[in-house]
Amino acid sequence: MNVLFWKRFIGAWLIAFLSLTLSRIVFYSNLLSYFESPFSEVLNALWFGLQFDAVSIAYLLGLFFVALPFIKKGWSQHVASAFYILMLGAMNLLNCIDAEFFKFTARRSTDDIFEYAFLSDDIFNIGPNLLTHFWYLIVIFVLIMLLVLWLFLQLFKTEPAPAKFWVKSLALIPTALIIVLAARGGLRPIPLTIIDAGMTEAPHLNAVVLSTPFTILKTWGKPELDRYEFPADEMVNLNPIIQPDSTEFTGKLKGKNVVIIIMESFGTEYIKALNGLDVGYTPFVDSLCLMGLVFENGYANGHRSIEGIPAIVSSTPTLMYEPYTTSRYAGNNINSLANLLGKKGYYSTFMHAGNKNSMNFESFAGQAGYNVFYDRNDYPFPDEHYDGFWGISDHYFMNHCVEKFTEFKKPFFSTIFTLSSHHPYSLPREHQNKYPKGTLPIHESLGYADEALRQFFESASKTEWFENTLFVITADHTSLSEHPQFQTKLGSLRIPIVFYAPSDSTISGRFQQVVQQADIMPTVLDLLGYDQPFFSLGVNAFDSTAEHAAVAFKHDQHQLYLNGKLICFDGEHTTFAFDLEKDLLNQNNLVHSDISFSDNEHFIKAYLQNYSKALLENKMTFEAWEEK
C-alpha cells in the first residue's frame, strides 16, 4: 500500500488517542479534589491511560481500520467517516458524562449504566435539567468533537492512488495484527483488565487511568457473579445463619414498631456530630446523634441507591457488576425485615415519594415481602407537591407518612426513603434560600432534608405510636465530597447509622465498632428479640463474638475493611492493602510488605464463598441454606 494509507491509518489512531486523552483530562479536571496528586503522577496516569484507550479504539473502531484500505471517495468514505466520528463521539461523551457521575458513584461506569438509566421514566424527567446544570461539559464535548472532525477532514482531503484489490488486501495483515495487539493491551499473557489500572505508580488515580468506554467494554455481557470456592484452610469459619442469641440489647424493644428512614445521599461528611470537622449541614441529625445510639463507623455497601436499599432491609449487598435488584438473582427467595417481621404479625410498608417503580424499588419491595408500597401516585397531591424531577418533596411526603402510620395496624414496620437531597437538589419555593448554601451543590438540599426529618419527628412525637417505635436513621450512599478523608476507598462509603427509641434511654451512646448497611437487619431483629434463625450477610452489631467488617465492590475488586485494615481482593489475590490506623488516605500500598493481611484475606474468601453460593443456588433464606 502507498504512503497515504499509512498516513491515514496512523493519523486516525492519533486523532482517537488525542480526543480520548482530552476527555480524560476533562474527567480529571472536574474531579481535582478527588485526585490530588503531584503533576508527575498525573502525567504518568495520562500516559498509562493510553494503553486502555488503545483497547477501546481497537474494539470500537477496529471495523473502520479494517475497511480503511478499501475506502475511496464517494459513499464508502461518507459511511466510514460517519462511523468513525459517531463511535469516537460516543466514547468521548461517556468520559464526559462520568466526569460528573463519578461524584455520585466513586467509580467509572460499567455496562449496567444503560439499564440503570432506563429503569423508569426518571431519566426523561431529569434529563433536561442535567443538560442545563452540566452545560459546560456539553460545550467541552462539542469542542473536542469539532477538533476531531477538522483533523479527520484534513486527513482525508487527498484521494488515494488506485491499487489492485489484492494489494489492498495485503494491508489487512499488519492492520489485523495491530488491532489484535491493541485489543489485548499489548504483548501480554492475558488481556488488559480493569484491575490493571492499579499498576500505576499512584493507585488512587486508577479511575483517571481507566476510561469509561473501557470499563463498559470489559463488563459487557460478563457473568454477573463468579462462583467462589476456596480451600478450607484459606478461610475463616463464617456462617451466614444468625441464631437467636443473648446480648445486652436483646429483646429490649420487643413488640415495638420499626421505622427505618433512609436519607438520600446523607454521607457522614455532612454531619457535624460525626465528621470530625467544624462544619455540618444537618443540625437535627446532630441532635438525634446526642439522643440515640450511634455507630460512628458506619459504612454503605455501595455507591448507589439501588445497591443500598437491599443491603439495609434484607442484608444483601451488591458484590458484582449489576445491582442485585436488577440481576438475574433478583427473583431469589430472600430473608428481609419485612417478611421476617411479617411472621410475627407486623404490617410492613415501603414509603418512597418517587415516580412509579423508580429504580425498581417497588419490584424489590414486593420480592422482599412488604405488604404495601406507597409512591408519588398514592400521595393525595401528586402534582401540586411534585418537585418536577424525582417525586414529592421530602417535607410533604414525610408528614404524610406520619398520617399513614397512625392509620396502620400495629405493630408495623416501615421503610421511608427520601429523595430531595438527590441531584438536581430541587427545593420547594418556600424552602429556598433558608439553609446554608455551603460549598457544594448538595449542601443546601441537605439542610432542607434535615428540616423535613425534624418536622417528621415533631409531628410523630404527638402520636400514640411514637413512644412505641424504634427509629433507624441511615443513608443509601454518600455523594459529593470536598475532604480527602471522605474520598478514599473506605471514606467514600461512610454513612450515619443511628438507632433512636424514645421510650428507652438505654438505647443510646456512641459505639466504635464497624457497622455496615448489611448489619442493620440482624441488629434490629436482636433489639426486637426475634427468636428464629435467619439468613444474613451481615452480623448483629451488638454481638461481641462476631467479626465486624464492611464489604463493597469497586473497580472489579472486592473491598474489605476489618480490624483497622483495608484490602482489595480480585477473586484470587489481594491487590491493595492499607493499614488505616497509620494511613488514613490510602497512600502506602502494603500488599508487598512484610505486614500480614491474611486475616482479612481469609475473611473475604469465606464471605465471597457464602455470597456466591447463596445467590447462585437461591439459598438466601434459613430453610434454603440448611437444605442439603
Task: Give the tags.
Alkaline Phosphatase, subunit A, globular, 12% strand, 2 domains, 14 strands, 4-stranded antiparallel beta sheet, 41% helix
Question: TL;DR?
Answer:
The chain is an alpha/beta fold and 628 residues long. 41% of the residues lie in helices and 12% in strands.
Provide an overview of this structure.
There is one protein chain. The chain has 628 residues and is α/β, with parallel strands linked by helices. The protein has two domains: 217 residues, no CATH class; 386 residues, Alkaline Phosphatase, subunit A (3-Layer(aba) Sandwich). It has 20 helices and 14 strands. An eight-stranded mixed sheet has the order 5-4-6-2-7-8-3-9, with helices on both faces. Strands 11-12-13-14 form a four-stranded antiparallel sheet, with helices on one face. A two-stranded antiparallel sheet has the order 1-10. The mean pLDDT is 91.
